[in-house]
Amino acid sequence: MAYTLEINGQSHEVDLPGEVPLLWVLRDTLGMTGTKFGCGVAACGACTVHIDGVAVQSCQTTLETVDGPVTTIEGLGTPGAMSAIQRAWVEHDVAQCGYCQSGQIMQAAALLAETPDPTDDEIDAAMWGNLCRCGTYPRIRAAIHTAAKTIQAEG
Amino acid sequence: MGRLRTFTRRTFIVGSVAVAGGVAFGAYQVLRPAKGPGAPEDGLRLNPWVLIDARGVTVIVPRAEMGQGVQTTLAALVAEEMEMPLGDIRVEHGPPAEVYANMSLLIPRDYDAKRPGAVMETLYQAMPKVLGLQITGGSFSAFDAYEPMRKAGAAAREVLREAGAARLGVGLDQVRAEAGAIVATDGSRIPYADLAEDAAKIEPPKSPRLKDPADWSILGKSQIRLDQPAKATGTATFAIDVRRPDMRFATVRMSPRLGGGMVSFDASVAETMPGVEKVVDLGDGFAVVATNTWLAMQAAEAVTVEWGAAPYPAETDAIFARIEDAFADKPNITARDEGDVEADGSGDLVEAEYRVPYLAHATMEPMNSTALFTGDGLELWSGNQAPIMLQKAAAEAVGLDQDAVTLHTTIMGGGFGRRASIDFGVIAARVAQAMPGTPVQVTWSREEDMRHDHYRPGAIARMAARLDGGKVAMLTGDVACGSVMGSQMSIPMADRTIVEGIGDQPYRIENRRIRGYAADVAVPLGYWRSVGNSQNAFFHESFIDEMAHAAGADPVEFRLGLIRPEHARSAAVVEKVAEMAGWTGKTPEGVGRGVAFTHSFGTPVAEVIEVVDEDGSIRIAKVWIAADMGVILDPGNCEAQLTGGCVFGLTAAVHGKITFADGMVNEGNFTDYELLRMSNVPEFEVALMANADRPGGVGEVGTPPAAPALANAIFDLTGERVRQLPLIDRFDFVG
Ligand code: FES
Ligand code: FES
């Protein structure tokens, strides 16, 4: 069946069964590979995207239930025009293997949209579901604090 | 170039070759004929590391990036000598080629070289040259590249200066290399790229002058890794992100009884499911090829299959009974046998038995590879740590010559040793063979990945010591586990990984015997971040703690008393970590502290861990790490690797456990193979020391001391001695 999705401000038609998770629509059908597959069972956060500004795990969101505009890591910024949060990630040299970081950044972006100056406890709560096998958590925390300051300063 | 033959094999001689539109610099090494891009014919090896052409400067980093920052650090070695901004350098992995083979697989220690095991380690060092391995692992990349990469950069710099001076018609003393260009005293500048073709005609200096480390402007300073912008924007291409025109997506199921094969399967339902194009019978498993990975995974669930029996005991307890049986055999390896350990001595006998479980790597990116089979050729895209071995094995699997296989090594979403095995690449080649002309990406489900790992072996250690007046009169240790090297190379061999981290530690003990026993258990094993050190450091450093406690001594002072006479660099990291942590040997009620030390991959590392009791749950509050990196190439990256390595070790100590039932691995996903999280990762403080003339390992060395330091801290907190991991089986931790 054909569905229309709005992703990063662009409209896309896809013809797939409605129960295919958004993750696999993005990755395999639309070729948008920034969003990652880590577990497929809501246990790692690598697949995090925004729907209507809310962070969701795209491996758990079926195509037929997508009911708002989707933002993926590609929509947050590009290497030549990074968002404040992506710049903070680079500045803190956060990524090791980097595989979890698209999901980490999308989760952090949703946190900062709601809570512009989060405490460490608020960061712990928001980022709880995002695993990093390389153990970059301390730098992720530092980057979130830096991004919060930059966003507030830039208004 | 015949005259170069007279140089010894350890000598590097820098050379250059003209390439289309430019020049490549590398280091020759006198050894044997090696096939590779630009290799001269006369038996010398040219490692073409630096390429200058119209695009600018490209550094070939023949080591794979799996998160350890190797591509940035190795590029920095060249950039420093070439006087180039690091950010202006392009980095490529390069093809599989013998010229990129490792110089060493083991970093030599700077103590204790005459010990019996040392001879075998020398052989092991020569092995990559003999076998033509090109492996990223063993923490030796920076050690290996430290001299040749700098020399290649320095030679390029000198030749470019000569070419620049000639072009400008001035003397060599009138030009300097600066920020990617040759600059004359009058201020005129020629970018390197414009001089590339001239440079190709100039013979490089045989032994170019290297910069004094005091003059370094890139090395020794923290660099933002070159791959950060791509990884922050989702544009870095992991193997799982490879997309080719008309590509299909597949998933695979191999026998969950590892090596047990497949009796029969019925795919009639799966074949009718949406998007499914083909179900491929692989003999020992099957693959479903579809238009979308998820549709392939759904169809794979619908296949009914009867698997063969496991070639090892079916239950965890029976596997450990088999490991225990190994103690009755002859030792596979004796790492030490010094003095007299059997003599009747006076004093107290301390004895303990320790056990650790099998562990999975659980890289964040599940195993996958993409392959295109065309009948007479195979193209393979794979994030792997061993390209030459993968190329060979993939060629054999599809009946082609090795030359007919083009392998692209991508960055990896975690390696930790898992991607030094090559099974996932070979499987993709086999699936693609059934779909000639169509590129196929084969992605494993997380469950397939966790249940078909090449595991860190489960292991048992039996330790005994005699303490006489607080002094260690005798120490013995016997370790039994499956042989990782035997499993990887499919041949039985004396396996030093069984005893590394216990038979080679710089403690001065007169009467000591350390033996390793290879258990006959056919569970596939692999190199797991720090390999044997991961379990043996737990055995050794927990037991050292038990000895200190039995002797009534402070654990830091007890260690220093044994380490100081043996190795000053190691003693210094223990002293440093105690100073950083303000170690007093006493902790308030509700707080526990533990210390551990390991010398692995040429790098001594000491860690102190503080735990606190939070309403009956344990919080790992703080970790202090002191490490002697030898030479510090990038302090920020060292800190990241040490802390990341420690988190990896703590995760395993608290949660890690792979168990078996009915021949199959029980754990399948992060729901039952839990990791540390943002909310329970400790705070870190790291001190880097630099007391050698070469860099040691970085990527693995933070892992070994983590588990024993934590177990020792829990003993301090609770009075309960931990002799079995994971800790979650006995204690509660904050989530
Ligand atoms: S892939 Fe969706 S949470 Fe792990
Ligand atoms: S950076 Fe490797 S998993 Fe997070």
From TrEMBL, chain A:
Residues 1-76 form the 2Fe-2S ferredoxin-type domain. GO terms for molecular function: 2 iron, 2 sulfur cluster binding; metal ion binding; oxidoreductase activity. The keyword Iron-sulfur applies. It comes from the Bacteria. Keywords: 2Fe-2S, Iron, Iron-sulfur, Metal-binding, Oxidoreductase. PROSITE patterns: 2FE2S_FER_1, 2FE2S_FER_2. InterPro entries: 2Fe-2S-bd, 2Fe-2S-bd_dom_sf, 2Fe-2S_ferredoxin-like_sf, 2Fe-2S_ferredoxin-type, 2Fe2S_fd_BS, Beta-grasp_dom_sf, Diverse_Oxidoreductases. The keyword Oxidoreductase applies. This is (2Fe-2S)-binding protein. It comes from Maritimibacter fusiformis.
UniProtKB/TrEMBL annotation, chain B:
The chain crosses the membrane at residues 12-31. Gene3D superfamilies: Aldehyde oxidase/xanthine dehydrogenase, a/b hammerhead (3.90.1170.50), Aldehyde oxidase/xanthine dehydrogenase, molybdopterin binding domain (3.30.365.10). It comes from the Bacteria. Residues 233-311 form the Aldehyde oxidase/xanthine dehydrogenase a/b hammerhead domain. Keywords: Membrane, Transmembrane, Transmembrane helix. GO terms for molecular function: oxidoreductase activity. PROSITE patterns: TAT. The keyword Membrane applies. The keyword Membrane applies. This is Xanthine dehydrogenase family protein molybdopterin-binding subunit.
